[in-house]
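Slide 14.
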Amino acid sequence: EVLGARLEAGLESALADAGRTGCVQRVGSMITLFFTDGPVKALDDIPPSAVEQFGAFWRAMRAGGVYLPPSQYEAWFISAAHDEGIIDQTVEVARRALA
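Slide 15: predicted structure.
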């Protein structure tokens, strides 16, 4: 829960700092970033442009060494292998990807 909240806050901050539209939705250790106003409650809430933006974001994250699920419709999972340092590194790569 603590790491999930840290990642959520970091992603929200990165979106705001980049001036990008997006919402972060999280339940415990499952989290997803959508490039649309939220909340997203159904697939129809995600416009095609948001899916395209996620593709570009995903490629930038991968280039930065962070491997996310390759689909906008999949959740990211935080596991026991993750610690604060990895969460902070993920947020930093996301900041660069969103800039």
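Speaker note: The two ends are 27 Å apart (CA to CA).
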